[in-house]
Amino acid sequence: MTTPQPRPAESAGATSAPTYPRLNARTLRFTLGAPRTFSIAPDGSRIVFLRAPSGTDRGIELWSYDVDSGTEHRVADPATLLTDGREDLSPAERARRERSREGAAGIVGYACDRDVRHAAFALSSRLWLADLDSGQVRELPSVAPVVDPRPDPTGRYVAYASNAGLRLVDTQASPGSGDGTPEERVLVGPEPGETTVSWGVAEFVAAEEMDRVRGYWWAPDGTSLLVERYDEAPVPQWHIANPAQPDQPPVPVRYPAAGTGNADVSLWLVDLAGERREVRWDSAAYPYLVDVSWTSYGPPLLRVLSRDQKSARVLTVDLASGATAAIREDSDPAWVEIVSGTPRWLPDGRLLTTVDTGQTRQLAFDGEPVTPVGLQVGAVLDVDDDGVLVSATTEPTEQHVLRVGLDGTVTPLTREPGVHLGRASGGTVLLVSQSLDHDGSVVRVLRGGAEAGRIESRQEKPPFTPDVTLLRLGPRELRTAVLFPRDHTPGSRRLPLLLDPYGGPHALRVRSARAAFLASQWLADQGFCVVVADGRGTPNRGPAWEREVLNDFGSTLDDQVEVVQEIARRYPDDVDPGRVAMRGWSYGGYLSALAVIARPDVFHAGVAGAPVTDWRLYDTCYTERYLGHPDEQPDVYARNSLLDAAAGLERPLLLIHGLADDNVVAAHTLRLSSALLAAGRRHTVLPLTGVTHMTPQEVVAENLLLLELDFLREALG
């Protein structure tokens, strides 16, 4: 493909300001500088958080906010701690960041003790501990690479994962050291010869598909831990090669593709001496360990899930024997939904879960719904003595924070249209808000229901404000955002139509927040009407809506077709239905390729980034949730595959794929390209050397967007 030539406004010397594509990449889509990852002290006096020093600096720092004085204090600066300025990331840490889609550097995670007086974090594969009272930061003895360090609730010990084992540091001086050095030792790890066993970290599908990135949990009194052990021996071994470096051997990875083996997961109670006892449940029937909760409100809680995800149990653990008892069972003919923050004990001993009732997902205490019909609960954010902090909404484009009291009283804490998140503890409530009315995030601190202060956001100000129109289209009221060039005069010209969706289950693109539409507005300004639409399967519209994609990913394309028809009807003098394209990444890439293959009568060009083309090559947990087991439903997989339909391609298609992608492996694009070639169908493939499922590299991300733009202009004329 021809390399794009610089546009006049983007030529060297034309302007000192970076182009939007470069600025978008440099700021990680304008997220750098936003406060994030908050912890609140039990008495509400202190808030700990992460923040980059500016909107263009990827080196995340650890900060503390004093609620009474309203002042901020930087606790740990990576540039100061690493005297050589270089950060060394282990393969384990790189994989962990890939699972969490983390593109920043520095201190990207931390954990606190119960009173939020100490914070442990990993930096450059080393272990660090911050005293939040004195501000002192010291490096603790450790064995690299350090992954996911967590202090015990009392603050004396710090556990961390390293080299397939879980290790422990006693932060008090070792009696025999003589020099005040803390004691460091292995707590539990693989036995000799167990080359496929790991302790203390989450297995691939838990981190990628269940939103569980941790693999151990401290007891409330700090005397023991629950530790995950997994064995990847049943998981097929794949290899990811770097064709640009033929002298390097391929990297072996264990990938649980649909229909193949998962890791064998178990849970163990481990004391500080390393003595361990297995926690037993029917793991043959319920192999997925979805989450673990261990608080002072009750015994440990586990949520386990069947392989087909149609049955789930909540279990309690008897610490003396390791036996478990089921206290709740859920089943669904499609799948049982995983809701972040559940299950949990309430302070009064009742069980906190969600229940799906008709068209609504409701919060429940001991199985009884306590939130109203029509209010879709998305996640539990916090539980304390004042009740439950919940993320919920009645409008899919918005997300609100509500307090649900132990008596069932529901109190909205946010009302302004937007996307809001929160934390709460000790009478302090923290609210993080985005909206269409302001740039970036606004972080407010509330005491007694009134604003007591704000935490500064240092995000870069975008060079323009998106001009977004939110619509409900068609009889299904598809939530849709429409963006024209900011200088467009209605009726002056008919523009090509560019759809820019994700379009798949469990993800939203149409949000009441400016940041959601910056890239879409830039594309619109290049001469397109850009449309973003959320169809069936997306969150916030209830269980029945989510389950409409069961066995049928192709139905998500039907929604995009309906959007094209509705936009053409509403804007007959402003859009040209004879020039329609779609671009997308991951599931959006699948949808874009499907659009030009299955509906060339509607879509005239497609850009498919990291597309899933054969669902047999994607992971067990995600794929089998929606399409079942491939051996039991081969026709469903064939119907949803792009490979068998490749001969239908009649329109220009650009396939983009990172060759180092270990989530949607490059074989997806290569197999589709092979099928297209066998059918004699012209297409373009852009391989990205050394790039994973993310594209955080500044130059790559910038030029990739420009290449997409050139392709679309050429394809649509």
From TrEMBL:
Gene Ontology BP terms: proteolysis
One Gene Ontology MF term: dipeptidyl-peptidase activity
InterPro entries (alphabetical): AB_hydrolase_fold, Peptidase_S9_cat, Peptidase_S9B_N, Serine_Prot_S9B/DPPIV
Pfam families named in the record: DPPIV_N, Peptidase_S9
Domain Dipeptidylpeptidase IV N-terminal, first and last residues per copy: 110-422
Membrane is among the record's keywords: no
Enzyme Commission no: 3.4.14.5
UniProt entry keywords in alphabetical sequence: Hydrolase
Name of the protein: Dipeptidyl-peptidase-4
